[in-house]
Amino acid sequence: xLGERILHGGDYNPDQWLDHPEIFExxxxxxxxxxxxxxxxxxFAWASLEPEEGVYQFxxxxxxxxxxxxxxxxxxxxxxxxAMPHWLTQKYPEVMQVQADGRRxxxxxxxNFCYTSPVMREKITAIDxxxxxxxxxxxxxxxxxxxxxxxxxxxxxxxHCEHCQAAFRIWLKKKYGTLEKLNRAWWNYFxxxxxxxxxxxxxxxxxxxxxxxxxxxxxxxxxxxxxxxFYQLExxxxxxxxxxxATANFMYFFKGMDYNRLKEGVDxxxxxxxxxxxxxxxxxxxxxxxxxxxxxxRSLLKAPFxxxxxxxxxxxxxxxNPLKRPGMHMLSSMQAVAHGSDSVLYxxxxxxRGGFEKFHGAVLDHRNGANxxxxxxxxxxxxxxxxLGELIDHTVNRxxxxxxxxxxxxxxxxxxxGPRLDFxxxxxxxxxxxxxxxxxxEADLVDMNDSLEGYSLVAAPLNYMYxxxxxxxVRKFVENGGIFVNTCFSGMVDDTDLCFTGQSPLxxxxxxxxEEIDAPSEEFENQFTYGGSVYPAQYLCEIVxxxxxxxxxxxxxxxxxxxxxxxxxxxxxxxxxxxxAAESSLDxxxxxxxxxxxxxxxxxxxxxKLPYGVTVTERVGDNGxxxxxVMNFKNEPVCVEGIGKWTDAETKEVYEGTLEMxxxxxxxxx
Length: 670
Description:
Blueprint: E1 7-12, H1 21-33, E2 38-41, H2 46-49, H3 59-70, E3 74-78, H4 86-91, H5 118-135, E4 141-145, H6 162-176, H7 179-186, H8 213-238, E5 246-247, E6 249-250, H9 259-262, E7 270-272, H10 284-301, E8 306-309, H11 328-338, E9 343-346, H12 373-386, H13 389-392, E10 395-397, E11 401-404, H14 407-415, H15 425-438, E12 443-446, E13 457-460, H16 470-479, E14 483-487, H17 507-510, E15 512-518, E16 526-530, E17 533-546, E18 551-555, E19 565-572, E20 575-580, E21 582-583, H18 586-599, E22 614-621, E23 626-632, E24 638-647, E25 654-661, E26 666-669
Parallel strand pairs: 1-2, 1-9, 2-3, 3-4, 4-5, 6-7, 7-8, 11-12, 11-13, 13-14, 14-20
Antiparallel strand pairs: 10-22, 15-17, 16-17, 17-21, 18-19, 19-20, 22-23, 23-26, 24-25
Helix pairs in contact: 5-8, 8-14, 10-15, 15-18
């Protein structure tokens, strides 16, 4: 466990208050009162650290780190590339990004820099090296926070300048070797788009080429590589004078960057969580969205992660920004810990007086100091976390189920033209994950390159692309006894968005032959019967044929493809492969996965049926220690029955048979 305790605190920006020394003294006193043990420092402080080129002013940070050290408060120290000072953009305008329309950005906002720019790389390396030399071995500095929300530039994450165009062509040459191979992989014979010179290739832009899906796909991959290279440069630089681990804070289902690629250079995964609590009275959809992202972050390295940012109250950048109702801050924070986080950190400690996020929730408001509901709830949480460190140390969630979530597939399926133009990959993933969540059965989110070893059930919804090597992973998984689920519009294309011809790569495993795909409007929705109940076949309906020995569990009941299979099961080796040929309702997925959970012998830690709104997770230690979190996301009391016998890890009260839960309560059982 980093820092040998659950970290509690968050973004601290004293550089905004350097002309108010009394504020710092108040901050330190209130941090102690709120049980804050860690702050993130210097994230947007470049202009204060280097007010003019090559002139460093680090004394103010030195004083703060020293004082925090005497108070037992640890520091996550940031590199300041998230926002550039005006002296840099004025003297070197080439560091700013060029948009897809060819216009170079003006100064301002965040991440307004080209990841490829030699000047930007030179300037950030210089200040990073000085920061590491000065503070990299301080006893209370425990982690490097590289930049901030990489790719979060308010547009599309990327830069289209000439440096990036040249680097893109070099990247393509390395990947394909020859233009002949690139033209074949991209199918450039269509519309006479064959390239005859590498310099003819340009990034996808509105006034140029956007219809080549393979070009768009490779541009996204290249952009990820450039951001990853920038991260690696910063991480290498600070580690010249420091042995500390490094992180980069990720974001909620962020499409602009493949986190499965960036994870390779990150020592500890961290992310920024801002759920839309109280958007509606049923909090389950929001709880599921937060949970699936916690699961994704944990799954990247199969290890505990850090909740780097959250809000203790409201946020400020949605159309409506509700306050967290009493109890929700405790529950949503404990949800992170329950899914594998070793921290609860906030953006930010104290609200700024001006700027874009002056009304964003913080521990300290503009007025009233400690005399606020938010401060009291933060203090209560800090108190609780301080007693849980030893309990969860060296534990992490170890699911036996997984859902395939792959950035390449996300990009490809949402860029493709037909059979629909409104594919929403994340929405599909959430729909399947929700059934696992409702049953308290945890699932990792893994990409197609990850090993499937150790799982008993793997679901791959909307698995449009089969990447190289993936069919072999699946085949081995099922042969060895695993249960695999594929859905309609799966196995259509390879890595470069070329359609498979002839036999599908997993036809033998799935036991079906795909023929046609219908994308019906609401008036043409079909239906099928499964387990005695009728469910809709909607949005996407594949017409498939079951191969010999493949069991048909449900068929279409209407239209010209009535009688064609909708749900199939095929035995392959020691395992089973299921195919869902149509999109259907959440109720169908609930019924379908209940059967699979029984088949795979998967059940929640309490081994009981959970009331709606209640879920369960379990952190497990190498020594077999089990720590079970039971969470009630309903704003009303609930009763969980049939739980067996458990002890409350905090109160030591023993529960047997029944668990009475308060509104928005998280209980920890051992």
